[in-house]
Amino acid sequence: MPEGIYHFPRGFLWGSATAAHQVEGNNTNNNWSRWEKTPGKIKNNEKSGAACDWWDGNWKEDLTRAKESGQNSHRLSIEWSRIQPTQETWDDKALYKYVEIVRWMVNHEMTPMVTLHHFTDPLWLVDQGGWENPNTPILFARFCRKAVDALKDYVNLWITINEPNVYVMEGWIEGKFPPGKSSLGLAATVLEHLVRGHAAAYKIIHELQPNAQVGVAVNYRSLKPAHDWNPLDKMPAAFQNQIFNNAFHSCLKTGLLNMVLKKVKIPEAANTQDFIGLNYYSRDIVHFDITKPGNLFGRLEYPKDADLSTTGFIANIPEGLWDGLKWAHHFELPIIITENGVEDKDDSLRPRYLIEHLHQVWKAANYNWRIKGYFHWSLVDNFEWERGWSQRFGLWGLDVKTQERIRRKSVDLYEEICKENGISNQMVEKYAPEILNKLFPSY
Ligand code: FCB
């Protein structure tokens, strides 16, 4: 018998998250397929290739794995370039494949959450300027109408846009994502158009499905000034926090997009979210740096003694998730953790990362904050954008050449958590004994 359990609210959604381009394979008609073909853009020039081969049918086996290991929900995205291969044509067969997937989920008592835009854009859209073009929000809304109308009998949880903050930061400031630009001016324009696209989609979804729950997934970084007493560290931390973490979601509440250096009124965006989608991976320490005007004079670093993932991409700092939850809570809307996870090929960090982050979620739920679910990134190793196959985020591992799945011990841990709807001291002792004292101090 367990001696101590952190229980989660009844009806909690337990799942994992994936994105179309990262798992489907053979996507040839979007900005990322073109980016992959451009030498030097992806680590080791790797390609998504067959990815996890979901398009050819592997979705069913992977979702069966999820179902059998206790998950009652799954977040997936649909690929605009498949459904609308040219501006004038719709591929109903492709759309029907997504209907088949979500219907399968519902028939297997898994709640689907569908993301309508997860970093990828059709080439025909990109070739007319993509999200730099003021007409794109209308085209996106048109796509959403078509897709939502087809899926609405099975889906009522929607993410319109995944991580608009990362999409803009990487595509128009850092240049690591397509279109690989570096321009604060264009970044502001694109962010504004994404807000407009979301607002238009929100209205259409509710028109088609009055009981829909619609949100946006923000990538929340907990940003801490290197020295609390130093205004020079505090200033860039506060500005970056406003632009990166807060601007988009605040605008969906107030209709004002406040990007510090530029403010834009978008009245039609006010009150266009039903829940807060929170993606959290890590916390950064912000140092004042005169050489970084493009980053508002802030240089981001992980703490010196951080508990780092395989490639150093993520530091295990669960307290940062608490900051994110606190921020999300101030919107007075339900909260869903739409992504959280760590790249960890040998699964030595993942068990404690998972437990410690869920412990923060539990704490928030016990403050009576309306936390509705948790989606782990990811179900199976998949193509990690410009980092290619170098990072392994899956509960299940993937042998990319053979498509073989490797059951990591984190699958067993997550299965126990989902089935118990909680975390017990026995689970911690079994999977991450090094943190037993931290989680259950009396043992
Ligand atoms: C997030 C993305 C997701 C995945 C994880 C690791 O920023 O939304 O697609 O790449 O990072």
Strand proportion, as a percent range, falls in 15-25%
CATH homologous superfamily placement: Glycosidases
Bound molecules: beta-D-fucopyranose
Number of domains: 1
Shape category: globular
Question: What share of residues is helical?
Answer: 25-40%
What letter string, H or E per element, gives the SSE order?
Answer: EEHHHEHHEHHEHHEHEEEEHEHEEEHEHH
Report low-confidence residues grouped into runs of 5 or more: none
* Ends distance: 15 Å
Q: Report the average pLDDT across residues.
A: 97
Instruction: Identify the strand order in the major beta sheet.
Output: 2-3-4-5-6-9-11-12
According to CATH, the fold-level topology is TIM Barrel
- The oligomeric status of these chains comes to single chain
CATH level-two architecture: Alpha-Beta Barrel
